[in-house]
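lol forgot to send this yesterday, sorry. struct tokens for the thing we talked abt
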């Protein structure tokens, strides 16, 4: 009797274990071939090392989360999440992604270098730059929360090509309308929900005047501002951007709350104070506008953002034997 019971328990345990394993695999493999604990055997301290460096750097620079999550977005939308955005130009005839105009203000490359240096010391040529960027962005945005805002399955490998010419058509511009935004996201396997949810990242960070000043000055050729922009806010922005083409002045995208990752972006948007035409465009479609209203609720936004970030982090990833593990995130291996 006793033996039978034990076997029964053992059987049930195994069955449960099997179900849990399958669920784990599904969770991680839902979008791609990435997996949790990818470096468990080859570099067990990898995630801890990234987290430690990011914690320190984020304490000194609370704007780091904005820098790194935008860098990951630019990485994933051009050639997939393959760290192509990190490569320096080798041949001036073929400038790398970093050199393209929308890169303007991409920064945080030095932080990625620091992490790579530490990881090369701990486990040489094991952890990809693409995985480092995905972890670093997550940890930097999560830093003020004391918990991880989204999961980052791992196993991305690094690409060997980076071309500024490929930014166009892949990274949407700030004056893009709704249909062209949606098209850009659809091309990456993301849908309208992802578009509205990921745009919520504009709740942190800043923009240079040049990205939106056309909305402030002579928008329709009659010396006016974009009529879809709140009038008082347009006056406020003109004061901040007296020189419309300024490459140096920056403006908070979520006024008064640009260091705080929250749902304020959607409140501001509904007050017609979205900074870019691409933000305002999210109100021009019925379904999208409805989502904006829903996402004002924290309980809706945070889990949705986590899911969309996991989708973004899995775009066209290189896995298995594809690509390589760079020794230096700025240059391909010899
Ligand atoms: C939907 C299409 C998008 C457009 C048109 C767009 C456009 C822009 C532009 C023009 C800037 C200002 C750059 C500058 O002048 O310094 C910016 C900043 C930023 N974007 Fe986006 N973006 C989009 C989507 C995203 C996504 C998907 C994310 C991340 C998930 C993101 C995160 C950020 C962040 C955090 C900043 C602030 C960066 C900083 O403070 O340095 N954006 N975006
Ligand atoms: C996973 O990897 C296999 C073999 O490397 C490949 O055939 C398959 O397309 C990949 N699946 C996804 C979703 O990337
Ligand atoms: C850059 O590429 C062009 C075109 O392939 C080639 O003619 C040139 O020699 C290259 N320059 C360097 C420095 O490699
Ligand atoms: C949206 O922008 C695209 C590209 O600039 C343009 O071809 C299209 O006509 C615009 N659509 C609308 C509805 O304005
Ligand atoms: C505004 O735009 C119109 C039409 O493009 C142009 O004729 C006019 O000179 C512009 N005004 C200013 C102040 O730039
Ligand atoms: C970080 C970086 O490489 N920024 C470059 C962005 O592109 C401009 C030219 O459009 C360069 O001057 C910057 O150096």
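and heres what i got for the seq, position by position
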């Amino acid at each position: 009797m006793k033996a039978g019971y034990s076997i029964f328990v053992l059987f049930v345990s195994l069955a449960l274990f099997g179900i849990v394993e399958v669920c784990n695999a599904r969770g991680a493999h839902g979008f791609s071939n990435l997996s949790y604990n990818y470096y468990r055997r080859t570099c067990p301290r990898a995630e801890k090392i990234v987290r430690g460096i990011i914690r320190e750097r984020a304490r000194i620079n609370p704007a780091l989360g904005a820098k790194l999550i935008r860098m990951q977005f630019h990485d994933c939308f051009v050639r997939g999440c393959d760290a192509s955005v990190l490569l320096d130009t080798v041949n001036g005839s073929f400038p790398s992604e970093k050199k393209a105009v929308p890169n303007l203000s991409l920064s945080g490359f030095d932080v990625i270098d620091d992490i790579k240096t530490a990881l090369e010391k701990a486990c040489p040529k094991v952890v990809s730059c693409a995985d480092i960027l995905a972890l670093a962005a997550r940890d930097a945005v999560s830093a003020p929360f004391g918990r991880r805002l989204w999961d980052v399955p791992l196993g991305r490998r690094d690409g060997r090509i980076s071309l500024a010419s490929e930014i166009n058509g892949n990274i949407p511009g700030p004056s893009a309308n709704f249909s062209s935004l949606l098209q850009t996201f659809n091309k990456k396997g993301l849908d309208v929900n992802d578009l509205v949810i990921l745009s919520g990242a504009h709740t942190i960070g800043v923009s240079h005047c040049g990205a939106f000043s056309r909305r402030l000055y002579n928008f329709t050729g009659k010396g006016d501002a974009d009529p879809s922009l709140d009038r008082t806010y347009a006056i406020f922005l003109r004061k901040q951007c007296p020189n419309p083409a300024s490459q140096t002045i920056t403006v908070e995208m979520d006024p008064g709350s640009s260091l705080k990752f929250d749902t304020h972006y959607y409140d501001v948007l509904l007050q017609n104070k979205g900074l870019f035409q691409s933000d305002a465009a999210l109100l021009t479609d019925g379904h999208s506008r409805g989502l904006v209203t829903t996402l004002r609720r924290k309980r809706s936004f945070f889990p949705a953002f986590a899911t969309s970030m996991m989708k973004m982090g899995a775009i066209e990833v290189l896995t298995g034997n594809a690509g390589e593990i760079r020794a230096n995130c700025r240059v391909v291996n010899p």
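The longest helix spans residues 2-29. anyway ping me if u want another try
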